[in-house]
Design goal:
single chain, alpha/beta, Rossmann fold, five-stranded parallel β-sheet, 5 strands, 45% helix, globular
Length: 220
């Protein structure tokens, strides 16, 4: 069959669209990070921050921790499932001496059927993967924060934090960082001044609390 130019173009467009539709979430973002690594290779044996948008948006994280070499590989609104999927792209290649994880909030928020034990199971999977590939790396989990826009899942957030803290307490070379409590007011509610207008992502005042909580556990 003889194809016209217009028919060929439409076929190519369809193939391109179909292939993109088959790509997993955040695939393009991960490819950009990998391209960035090729242009400017990050240091090995640094401190790696990985997880969801609270890390992604912490663009100046290095300035908060001048005594540590930070690689920030937070991406999009990722879940633990996404971090597991891309661990070979955004964790292992850097051979970090410490892996700092903020993730799990989106797992609970995106799908109603995801429970605190589900988040723990996903975290255990990621933990086992990191331990296997980076047996000497220190692993830190930053607790899920109390986002005002996600008050409906507050009980699940608190339960997930408690389960992960309990799990890490039984494993050496780990730490659990509590940022949840310091982000509450005297009445036990999220402090709105710490958050942007979306009541989800943080103002610099929120990151200042994270700095104070995380810094004692960060490797130099």
């Amino acid at each position: 069959m003889k194809l016209t130019i217009s028919t060929f173009f439409l076929c190519a467009l369809f193939i391109s669209y179909y292939s993109q539709a088959q790509q997993p979430p955040y695939w393009k973002e991960i490819q950009l990070l990998k391209q960035q690594d090729k242009l400017q290779p990050p240091p090995h044996h640094a401190v790696l921050f990985v997880g969801s948008s609270s890390f992604t948006k912490w663009k100046d994280v290095q300035s908060y921790f001048p005594n540590s070499r930070i690689i920030n590989r937070g991406f999009g609104g990722s879940t633990l499932v996404d971090v597991i999927r891309y661990a070979g792209d955004v964790i292992y290649p850097y051979h970090p001496k410490q892996v700092v994880i903020y993730c799990g909030e989106n797992d609970l928020a995106y799908v109603d059927t995801v429970t605190a034990p589900t988040v723990l199971a996903r975290f255990k999977t990621l933990f086992a993967m990191v331990r296997h590939h980076l047996p000497h790396a220190n692993i830190v989990f930053v607790s899920i924060k109390p986002s005002p826009s996600r008050q409906a899942i507050r009980n699940k957030v608190e339960a997930a934090n408690a389960l992960i803290k309990q799990f890490l307490a039984t494993n050496a070379n780990t730490a659990f960082v509590n940022v949840y409590s310091p982000m509450l007011n005297a009445a036990g509610n999220p402090r709105p001044e710490l958050f942007l207008a979306d009541s989800l992502h943080m103002q610099p005042a929120g990151y200042a609390i994270w700095k104070k909580a995380i810094e004692p556990y960060l490797l130099k």
